[in-house]
Amino acid sequence: MPDNLESTSRTDDDRTFSVVIPAWNEAQYIAATLHAATQAIDQQLYSGNIIVVDNNSSDDTATKATQAGATVVFEPVNQIARARNTGARASCADWLVFVDADSIINPSLLTSSLASLANGSAIGGGSTVTLDRDVKGLTKRVLRLWNWWSVKSRSAAGCYIYCTREAFDTIGQFDEKQYAAEELYLSKKFRKLAKQRGQKFFIHTHSPVVSSARKIDWYTPKQLIRQVLLLLIPGATRSKKLLGVWYDRSHID
Question: In the chain, where are the structural domains located?
Fold first, then answer.
């Protein structure tokens, strides 16, 4: 077991997990995310650690993550899929839990996720999503639609994905040709593998992951809708230049 894998309450089962958090200029949110993740880990029956992937940040994201007790690794190429894969490679754990740097997980969600892996019923899954403040109008309707579709299609939101290490390696990890929607491609591969093995890729609904509503402040509804519709165009997710909602903060920072 690696030295940085902190012990929590243990059972006879010595399987371990890592919470992998990709972070690009997330100094504003990383402390709260790590605090929530640490509290969730402390209430599990299995031993877990936190790995933050500094995705070439220009702020003090890495410093704050280190101060919070996380293991920090560096990924120089600014790409979400690549950052997540770098974090997974830095882990020696049996199970992987991917959480976005602006998202909050609670103990109940983590407990349910790990239990489904431990009993073998699932090779992985995700969670429905809520936002960190009340939203109305189109945003609220779109969020409801996403959660309905996520459960119906068994497609995980990128802010929370969990899986066995073995299954993650078997399907080839996150597709580094994709600059967005990589979690949808991953979910599709997991569903296929789960079907072959008689298991599930499961979307939890009881304790939604809480994600930041910051993009609503950064962009107009029309801009966000155009960006989402762009994902429907074949090949568009392979172009970083087209995906400003995910990679261009020049007018924000």
Answer: 16-214
94 backbone φψ class: left, alpha, beta (φ>0; ψ -120 to 50): alpha
Query: In the Cβ-directed half-sphere of 191, how many Cα atoms lie within 13 Å?
Result: 16
pTM of the entire predicted model: 0.91
Q: How many CB atoms lie within 10 A of CB 173?
A: 18
Name the fold adopted by 16-214: Spore Coat Polysaccharide Biosynthesis Protein SpsA; Chain A (3.90.550)
Please check whether residue 71 is in contact with residue 38, taking contact to mean a CB–CB distance below 8 angstroms: no
Tell me the mean pLDDT in the region 75-93.
97
The tens digit of pLDDT for each residue in 1-31 reads 344 444 444 454 789 999 999 999 999 999 9
Per-residue pLDDT for 229 more than 90?
no
pLDDT in tens, 181-224: 999 999 999 999 999 999 999 999 999 999 999 988 887 777 77
- Cα torsion 3, 6, 9, 15 to 10°: value is -60
**Burial label, 142 (beta-carbon count in 10 A; 0-12, 13-18, 19+):** middle
Distances (CA, A) of 6 to 70, 164, 167: 10, 19, 24
User: What type of residue is 33?
Assistant: T
